[in-house]
Structure formats: structure tokens, C-alpha cells
Amino acid sequence: MPARTVADLTVLPRIPAPDGPRVGVTERGVRSLTTAPQGYEGEGFPVRRAFAGVDLALLDPFVHMDQMGEVEYAPGEPKGTPWHPHRGFETVTYLLDGTFEHADSHGGGGSISDGDTQWMTAGGGVLHIEKPPESLVVSGGLFHGLQLWVNLPRAQKWVTPRYQDLRSGAAALLTSADAGALVRVIAGEIAGHAGPGSTYTPMTMAHASLEPGAELHVPWDPEQNALAYVLSGDGTAGAERRPVRTGQLVVFGPGESLRVAADPGQDGWHPRLEVVLLGGRPIREPVAWGGPFVMNTQQEVREAMVDFHAGRLGAIPAARV
């Protein structure tokens, strides 16, 4: 897993233990624990549906998340998605292993690889494609990533589409109080250290790698919800030290801090506990979700589909056909 790493964690800023200088900090407990079912997306790459079976009200402002892979492709096997529309939300693609190319109907595009994040605001509407580069298709190789859908408030659903290509080197790097965890802050802020992602809704996104036996206890904005998704490994979460494992989503209850810890023994394939931490200030608006559109009403979803078929969400650039 070559997402950005550091050889010596002791040189990084440390996240102060929330139960240290402050007294009476409420640690979040586990409200729910679910296991992501497995399926296929696009032209056939394997995914885990991280939010399946969870009430959208508990996830707000997030609506969907897929763990893509982890899969070792043989030559000729790597797959992506065909051209498809989006409106009303943002897609956040975080790549841990491999390379992905993206392009849109506005002429934007580029590639992301190990540890990079591509943040696309669909806004009023865009056509989009994601696929592995031809070199990866020919050679095969490891592919592993995450795609998160972040809802937009009603007032921003019609903004002009935009991209943020966030390179791995831009993430804020922190370590836990015991220097046993590497925390990459992609968006929002943890212990006063901000990530590079610009968001319409206040939110936090971080990727933490915990060495066996390490513990991560971080302060958390009480106005934001809190989620932890286990990319790989075994550990515990919450004030009650609930056991968690690969492919499970923790929804935390209220509080001012959260805790995850890695079991002392990890398997040979995944030597660390890898966890994505998410939090957001709930939008608390009606959500009408239909396929690639996330709007406030079903009428708006139908209008988005009509606009797509009428070509009003853009056209595939001639160079990309």
C-alpha cells in the first residue's frame, strides 16, 4: 500500500491525547457497525459498498462510498467506467495503489496514482469517465482505491463543475501520541493541521495507518458526525473498544473525540490497520438520489435525466470518443 509513507514517524507533529490537558472530553462510542457487501462497478471492477444498509441521516453529508479493489490484475484485465453523468454532488477518488485517468465533458482531466486524490465537483452537471491508463491495462498490476460521494447543499447544487487534483505530498502528515500511527489529512482539520481539500460543506477526511498494537485517539469536531471505514486489518473502535475488521464501517455516536486501535497481531497480507476517518456537518436537507444524480426532489432527478439525454450536461469531447 504505497499511499504516502514516512520512515520515521517520530519526526511528525503529534496529535495530543484529547484526555490529556482537557478534562471531561466525551469520547464517542460506536453507534452502529456494518459489513460492506461486495459487488462490481463500471465495466467490472470489484467494489465493497461501504455505506450499504446505513441510514442516510447518519451519513449526512455523505451519500455513497465504494472501496475499489484491492485487486491484483493480470495483463489485459484492468477495467474502468464508461462515460456517465453526474449532478448535484462531489466525487472524491482516493487512490492507494495503481493509476487512474479521468476526463470530463468540460475538457478537464488528468491522472492520479499512489496516494493522490481527485476531487470532482459535479455541480450543475458533467459527463465523466474514469479508467486505468493503457500501460496498466497492458501490464496488469495492483489496484486499490476509494470513491466517496459528498452531497452538496441546495444552494451549491448548480455551481460550475471543477476539479481539485490533490497530490499525496500536499496532505498534512501527523502521528498519534504514541507515534504508532501515520495520519494523512486530506480535507478538513485534525488537531489544528489542515488538509488541502476545499469543501462546500465543513468536513474531515483522513487516512490512518496504525502499526500493530498502536492506538489513535483524536479530537473531533462535535458538530460533525464521525465514521471510520476499515480498508484492511483488525482492531477496535470507540470508547467500548468494539472489534472491527476489513470492510467494516463504524458510525460513531456524539462526542468530542474518537479512538481506533490496531490489534497486536495482523496478517501477513495486511501488516497494519488501515482506516479512513470521515466526518461532516450534516446538511439536513431532503435527499433525492437517482443513479448518478443527488438532488433535493425526485422531480429534480427526473429533470437531470432529461437534461442528460438532451445533451445539456455536455458532450463527450471529440478527442475522447
Automatic annotation (TrEMBL):
<protein>
    <submittedName>
        <fullName>Pirin family protein</fullName>
    </submittedName>
</protein>
<feature type="domain" description="Pirin C-terminal">
    <location>
        <begin position="206"/>
        <end position="313"/>
    </location>
</feature>
<feature type="domain" description="Pirin N-terminal">
    <location>
        <begin position="46"/>
        <end position="150"/>
    </location>
</feature>
<dbReference type="Pfam" id="PF02678">
    <property type="entry name" value="Pirin"/>
</dbReference>
<dbReference type="InterPro" id="IPR003829">
    <property type="entry name" value="Pirin_N_dom"/>
</dbReference>
<dbReference type="InterPro" id="IPR014710">
    <property type="entry name" value="RmlC-like_jellyroll"/>
</dbReference>
<dbReference type="InterPro" id="IPR011051">
    <property type="entry name" value="RmlC_Cupin_sf"/>
</dbReference>
<comment type="similarity">
    <text>Belongs to the pirin family.</text>
</comment>
<dbReference type="InterPro" id="IPR012093">
    <property type="entry name" value="Pirin"/>
</dbReference>
<dbReference type="InterPro" id="IPR008778">
    <property type="entry name" value="Pirin_C_dom"/>
</dbReference>
<dbReference type="Pfam" id="PF05726">
    <property type="entry name" value="Pirin_C"/>
</dbReference>
